[in-house]
């Protein structure tokens, strides 16, 4: 029985993966390999080094796209993705789709050109599906940058290539003349730079990297839970339209209790401690943890550490009040003026070593 199970688990499984550019590639892996091995093989075939942003999707029996659990074996994926194979030849093959699962917060930084190209292709699909909302004033520039990346410089003999795409179909033909003029303006721009400029605009648009879920809160009100690159946003569907934001560093963990999901957020004490550490870091430019580890540092470093002591809770809470209080600012400037005047008198008076500060002021 063990030998039969081993033979079945090592039998190779064929996969057809549709890439983000629309092309399909065939892959074959033993059944006992993990889904992560399949994802790695797909990304290595197109030369993508940053593989942590990507995932594979399949169509279930209801024609709904689901994410592949890459921790499971390849053999278990066959049962999951067998529902969307009506257009494929062969009963032992599976259809998968490559997609961006975790969007980079800033796709224009710290990404290779190959990875940035995949993010560029994914965002175009998001715009076509309506997941990313493009304002009317930005649509011509984005369409021209897409054409510059796909077709290169504008060619009169080629005609207007935007007719071959469904991008901004609801705004056309009103923006065709603007797209054509901007397309001519980008002449000579390399494809990689066009994709860079495209993403530099898209990353600020409504819906970039967002996954929406409709949830029911404890008070019985309907809300939309938006998973974004910066954190989680709860948008109320009531007339007020209020929302609550929870950034990723503030969230501790999630718990699933039957049909209820509980999100635990850092307490106020932990939040205050984190804010104090960041305040201390940006004041001194030295990491607080590094400062604590270097206890045997030189006396100059110890003096610098003492100068940037951790603020008390009351000081931290009322620091803004001091900054915006004109009376406090005026008193502080007056005190600074007196100190500068006393310093000038010390340097100019020959009897300064035998006189106190108050006597020097009285003498003048």
TrEMBL record:
List the Pfam families.
FERM_M (PF00373), FERM_N (PF09379)
The Gene Ontology CC terms held by the record are: cytoskeleton
Q: Where is this region: Disordered?
A: 293-364
Q: What SMART domains would the database entry show?
A: B41
Report the InterPro entries cross-referenced here.
Answer: Band_41_domain, FERM/acyl-CoA-bd_prot_sf, FERM_2, FERM_central, FERM_domain, FERM_N, Ubiquitin-like_domsf
Residue stretches making up the FERM domain: 13-316
User: Where does the source fall among the domains of life?
Assistant: Eukaryota
* UniProt-listed PANTHER family: 4.1 G PROTEIN, MOESIN_EZRIN_RADIXIN HOMOLOG 1
Q: This chain belongs to which protein, by name?
A: FERM domain-containing protein
Q: What does UniProt list as this organism's lineage?
A: Eukaryota, Metazoa, Spiralia, Lophotrochozoa, Platyhelminthes
């Amino acid at each position: 029985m063990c030998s039969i199970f081993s033979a079945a688990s090592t039998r190779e499984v064929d996969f057809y993966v549709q890439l983000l550019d629309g092309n399909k590639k065939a892959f074959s892996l033993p059944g006992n390999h993990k889904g992560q091995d399949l994802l790695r093989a797909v990304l290595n075939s197109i030369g993508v080094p940053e593989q942590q942003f990507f995932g594979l999707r399949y169509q279930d029996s209801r024609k709904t796209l689901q994410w592949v659990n890459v921790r499971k074996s390849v053999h278990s994926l066959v049962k999951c993705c067998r529902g969307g194979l009506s257009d494929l030849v062969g009963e032992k093959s599976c259809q998968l789709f490559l997609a961006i699962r975790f969007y980079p917060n800033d796709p224009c930084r710290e990404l290779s050109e190959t990875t940035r190209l995949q993010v560029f292709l994914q965002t175009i699909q998001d715009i076509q599906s309506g997941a990313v909302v493009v304002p009317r004033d930005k649509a011509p520039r984005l369409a021209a940058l897409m054409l510059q990346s796909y077709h290169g410089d504008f060619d009169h003999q080629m005609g207007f290539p935007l007719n071959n795409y469904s991008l901004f179909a609801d705004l056309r033909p009103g923006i065709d003349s603007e797209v054509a003029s901007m397309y001519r303006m980008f002449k000579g721009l390399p494809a990689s730079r066009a994709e860079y400029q495209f993403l530099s605009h898209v990353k600020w648009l409504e819906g970039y990297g967002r996954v929406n879920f409709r949830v029911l809160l404890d008070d019985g009100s309907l809300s939309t839970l938006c998973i974004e690159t910066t954190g989680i946003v709860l948008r109320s569907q009531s007339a007020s339209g209020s929302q609550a934001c929870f950034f990723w560093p503030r969230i501790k963990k999630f718990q699933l209790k039957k049909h209820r999901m509980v999100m635990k957020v850092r307490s106020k004490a932990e939040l205050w401690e984190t804010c104090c550490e960041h305040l201390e870091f940006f004041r001194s430019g030295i990491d607080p943890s590094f400062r604590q580890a270097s206890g045997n540092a030189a006396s100059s470093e110890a003096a610098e550490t003492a100068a940037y002591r951790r603020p008390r809770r009351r000081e931290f809470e009322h620091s803004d009040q001091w900054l915006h209080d004109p009376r406090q600012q005026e008193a502080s400037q007056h005190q600074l003026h007196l100190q500068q005047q006393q310093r000038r008198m010390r340097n100019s008076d020959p009897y300064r070593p035998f006189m106190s500060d108050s006597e020097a002021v009285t003498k003048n």
